[in-house]
């Protein structure tokens, strides 16, 4: 863009301390005070270009018409702008640039420098230059930045609104249609901002090309620009990303990883804590409400920052609801928000996570219940949940996330049993495919709280469903001395019941294969078919042998738990297990005694002996 240059004359202005003097050979007859600067000028050049100056000179001139003095402290742009205007009035060369055109335009309007006081006056020149500024992105950004210095004059002349409309239109357009955004106009505030800007500039042209430039605007102008961009149809994802980028420039906390060990938040960079709090609350209100537009990672980091800065309750509640609406997309590390309360009871803010869970459940629980009833998902032998509906899938993901969170906070010695239980039961039981995660968290809690009474340990263990433990978790639980004896017995009972059910199922399959072989033999099928079926039967037998070995290992683990003869008798009567002495004596008994070896469990025949 070319600069406006007037006809050059010899330099007549020079500064002497706090005064500007025009050395034309004639004595000064007008003194204009702007701020702390005094300008010693002449009447005729001023009144020939400015209606306001003409009026002031006529009113304040002395009777002899020799000289006058007046103040222009309210002129837009201050002494710097008036210096350029004075040179313009004297016909000297001035440069109009995107950085000074707004202040000159406002000052020219203030001084009434219209065409009534000379052709090609400053109002028309600056207005024409502004029209060129609006056509390019870089110059529009520069001009909008300088509007902050001359408000509300720029508002009255609609310079701000025109800049914003121009920028909003270009942000929603193809960036290849105009110049690449300017960079490096201002020195970065800190190393963090340099890194953020490098991330944007090092990437090719994309949806985020305009983030850096608009991040240099003040909050009021930035907010107005974002609203204008939204009204032009910008994608919510791009708007949310720009808002987060803006926050990262002014909030150092947004660039730190969420961790309890990170207590460096006491050092605030260049912005006061009150200003950061106000900025955070304003930006949160601008975030799009659409689910998933703002990542859960950024929302949780915003929530953590809001707690550190002690933002308003409405701001924190807003963020908690946003996180709750997409909790299934969150990561465990981001949920570990340190407790920032005045009376810190726990290491992590468990109450906050509980509220987030409540928001999630209020959205997904009705839908997931309907799905679970309609689809009737099956709990298979290994605890696999069969359902493909999205609400139930989201519920399962949150349940797994919660189990991981419980395991992290369980080691906190200050975490009360009631809070741990309330958090564990916040999701319904059917949302957990397996209860291994709950068992792991319970085990950690028992280890970190050895002073729990027997009744409290029993109450804690009711959180897990022993029927939904995997084989590995059941084996570990059977050897866990921290668990109550009743829970160990329950684990072993369900594990044996599972094995017996599996064995019965394999026998049923084996019998069907045998019957199929007989029928095929009667029909005269080829030998190859029979061979394949025999191979299948062999595989069934091998699987049966493996299951029997697993059952035997569980028996051995059970024997390790029994430390007295009386205790072993109780288990043997309930589960049908026998000691080696009983087994050896049974070999010497007659055939009638052999039948009694088929002991019962809960009134049902012992299938293992068969």
Automatic annotation (TrEMBL):
Alphabetical keyword list: Coiled coil, Ubl conjugation pathway
Ranges in a coiled coil: 537-564
Comp. bias regions, Low complexity: 583-592
SUPFAM superfamilies referenced in this protein's UniProt entry, alphabetically: POZ domain (SSF54695)
Family listed: Belongs to the NPH3 family.
Family matches, as PANTHER family: OS12G0117600 PROTEIN
Record's protein name: BTB/POZ domain-containing protein At5g03250-like
């Amino acid at each position: 863009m070319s600069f406006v240059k007037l006809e050059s004359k010899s330099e007549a202005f020079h500064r002497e301390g706090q005064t500007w003097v025009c050395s034309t050979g004639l004595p000064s007859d007008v003194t204009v005070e702007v701020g702390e600067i005094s300008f010693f000028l002449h009447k005729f050049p001023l009144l020939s270009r400015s209606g306001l100056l003409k009026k002031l000179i006529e009113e304040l001139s002395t009777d002899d018409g020799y000289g006058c003095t007046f103040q222009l402290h309210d002129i837009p742009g201050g002494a710097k702008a008036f210096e350029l205007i004075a040179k313009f009035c004297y016909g000297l060369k001035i440069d109009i640039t995107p950085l000074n055109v707004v202040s000159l335009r406002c000052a020219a309007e203030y001084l009434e420098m219209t065409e009534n006081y000379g052709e090609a006056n400053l109002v028309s020149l600056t207005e024409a230059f502004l029209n060129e500024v609006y056509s390019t992105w870089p110059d529009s950004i520069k001009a909008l930045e300088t509007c902050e210095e001359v408000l509300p004059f720029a508002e009255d002349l609609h310079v701000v609104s025109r800049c914003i409309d121009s920028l909003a239109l270009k942000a929603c357009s193809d960036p290849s249609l105009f110049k690449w955004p300017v960079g490096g106009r201002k020195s970065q505030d800190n190393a963090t901002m340099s890194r953020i800007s490098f991330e944007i500039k090092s990437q090719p042209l994309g949806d985020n090309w305009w983030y850096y430039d608009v991040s240099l605007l003040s909050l009021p102008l930035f907010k107005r620009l974002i609203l204008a961009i939204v009204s032009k149809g910008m994608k919510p994802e791009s708007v949310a990303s720009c808002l987060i980028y803006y926050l990262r420039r002014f909030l150092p906390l947004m660039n730190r990883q969420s961790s309890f060990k990170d207590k460096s938040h006491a050092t605030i960079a260049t912005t006061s804590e009150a200003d950061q709090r106000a900025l955070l609350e304003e930006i949160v209100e601008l975030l799009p409400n659409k689910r998933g537009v703002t990542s859960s990672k950024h929302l949780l980091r915003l929530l953590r920052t809001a707690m550190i800065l002690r933002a308003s309750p409405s701001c924190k509640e807003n963020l908690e609801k946003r996180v709750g609406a997409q909790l299934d997309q969150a990561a465990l590390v981001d949920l570990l928000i340190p407790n920032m309360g005045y009376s810190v009871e726990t290491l992590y803010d468990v109450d906050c996570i509980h509220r987030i869970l409540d928001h999630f459940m209020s959205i997904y629980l009705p839908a997931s219940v309907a799905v679970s009833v309609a689809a009737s998902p099956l709990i298979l032998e290994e605890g696999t949940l069969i359902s493909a509906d999205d609400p139930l899938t989201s519920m399962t993901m949150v349940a797994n996330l919660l189990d991981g969170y419980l395991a992290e906070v369980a080691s906190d010695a200050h975490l009360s049993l009631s809070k741990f239980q309330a958090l564990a039961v916040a999701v319904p039981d059917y949302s957990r495919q397996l209860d291994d995660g709950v068992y792991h968290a319970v085990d950690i809690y028992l280890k970190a709280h050895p002073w729990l009474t027997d009744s409290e340990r029993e109450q804690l263990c009711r959180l897990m469903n022993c029927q939904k433990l995997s084989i590995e978790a059941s084996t570990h639980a059977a050897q866990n001395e921290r668990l109550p004896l009743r829970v160990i017995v329950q684990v072993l009972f369900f594990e044996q019941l599972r094995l017996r059910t599996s064995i019965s199922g394999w026998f049923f399959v084996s019998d069907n294969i045998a019957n199929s072989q007989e029928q095929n033999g009667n029909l005269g099928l080829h030998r190859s078919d029979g061979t394949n079926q025999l191979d299948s039967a062999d595989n069934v037998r091998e699987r049966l042998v493996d299951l029997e070995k697993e059952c035997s290992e569980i028996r051995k683990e059970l024997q390790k738990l029994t430390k007295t003869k009386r205790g072993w008798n109780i288990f043997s009567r309930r589960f049908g297990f026998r000691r080696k002495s009983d087994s050896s004596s049974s070999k010497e008994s007659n055939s009638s005694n052999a039948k009694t070896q088929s002991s019962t469990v809960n009134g049902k025949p012992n299938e293992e002996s068969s």
